[in-house]
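Workshop exercise sheet. Pairs work together: one partner reads the sequence aloud, the other fills in the structure field after running the prediction. Swap roles for the next sheet.
Pair: D.N. / O.F.
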Amino acid sequence: MKRQTASRYWVVMVVVGACGGVAVANDAADVRILHKEAVVFASPREVWHAWTTPEGMAAWWVKDANIDLRVLGPFELMMVPDAPEGERGAEGCRVLSYLPYEMFSFEWNFPPKIATLRAAKAKTEVVLHFDDLGDGTTRVRLDQLGWQEGEDWDAGYAYFDRAWGYVVALLKKHFDEQATKVDSWIDGAVNVTAQYGPQRQQQFVVELPADVATVWATLTTVDGVRSFLSPQPHIELRSGGAYALFPESTAKILGLVPERQLVVTGSAPLEFPNVRMGGTWAVLDFAAGGDGATELTMTCLGWQNGEEWDRAFEYFLKNNPMFLNLLRKRFTEGPLKWSEPGPGEVATFTREPLKTEPRP
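Structure field:
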């Protein structure tokens, strides 16, 4: 058999919206392939169910579906069930093959607007692959094959280039919305909101009985951090400067607007090495409240997927409120005074009494 060379083919890749889809073609009509793909926040089993069962299909795309999961069983999606017979959708299409939770292929006909191919009952083949990415997400790859030459076939290709981009985006949106969940609770004086799903984030809000200038100085100076948290912070108050509240911290300042906003990279304990390497960040917003108080809002973003990231997410849902409650305690009970430890000793602290009465 003569070996084909790579020079025989040319490929064109076009990014499609937020789906990351591409269209692939070459100058040999019998090898033209339409390709789309997206990463969805679901397991392969969940995505498989969405494509291969009537109830799964109805949850995200076509409400009226006749699907019988067997070779040459029907795969008929009635996009317009009230239209005249023959114009309702994927009438007469069949399942071609499948590998459970990994691959599913089916026939696909042309829309009524491509009248000649619709009347001729011309069909292409659509092949879906579901790749488990191991982090709670699945890459869905869609390939449409079987294209022939001719103006109508070109029109059909252009139509499905748009249509499958829309469908893949719809699938992604469905699972993103399903995965998103919001929980809220109070931890001490801190209001906590956790958003789960593809765009995970944490938000913590606390009212502090001190004016904005005082709270800003407490969080952005060495003496301020020493007064409520740790004996050896390292802070360089500039973009790119260190924001190490503890000696082992790797956090940096990403940006700041004095007495209004501070943005810093995240840091993490050694038990979370991948999280510690970077990717998360925190936005601290300072707003004046009533009676000289300050409302501090800390939003933590940049969470990725995976077991370690899941554990770190839960860890910081507990430790960030602890951090903010300690900050508030500095204004309600007094600042910390640290000892000067000798070699091999650990610094200890006492709490100095407030110079003025705390606000009720």
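Discussion prompt: Residues 1-29 have pLDDT under 50 and may be disordered. What would you look at next?
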